[in-house]
Amino acid sequence: MKNALNWTLAVVFGLTLIPALMLSAADGVMFSAQLYRRAYEKYDRPAAIGIDANDLMDVTQRLLGYMKGREPDLIIEKEIGGVVQEVFGERERLHMVDVRRLVLGAMRIRLLCAAAAAMCLAALAVRLRGRAVAYLARGFLWSLAVWGALLTALGVYMLVDFSDAFWNFHLLFFDNDLWLLDPATDVMINMFPEAFFNDMALAIVWRAVLFIAIPAIGAALLTRREKTHD
User: Fold this and answer.
1) Given pLDDT bands bounded at 50, 70 and 90, which one contains residue 230?
2) Which of 177, 195, 205, 220 is the most buried (most CB within 10 A)?
């Protein structure tokens, strides 16, 4: 019974630590001003929108601050096409209310997952002392197999048909059609074309792989050493 509890704690440690790492990777990419600057240059967004590049970055900083709950609203005026006007219309602002709710919810999930992983680690450390590391390593690797299978399937889906995956993402996480914007009238969809999100998804994947690979390699080496000593 005690051994079953130890393994349960070890597996829950891995199952909660991995999504915390993935969400941290996503956070690092989504809120990187440099990533947006490079994307705007790559896809020539200032020219497409008719806005100065520095003004576009200012709008972006305000937008990112809003998503993190640091800006009260998205009422922003800039010169677009030679006319000073509000950058985002009502439909765009309402959609960003949903996006902010989703982002802040993901941050809370990350915090809860990290807290759960820390509690499992602490519980095993108290129960097993020095032997806890071996349990944690194996629990992490078992959990990685579960998450790896799910993420591989999702990755293949995105590679085969990103447009379909992108569409279904919105259907899954939004209960309205505010995300269906018009490129002829809405600045936001011109700031972030689908290709931008494709690039962002790839960047998140690579960063998540890095974040997870480091502890995974450590866990694998430790597990191999434990087996050698058995």
Assistant:
1) very low
2) 205
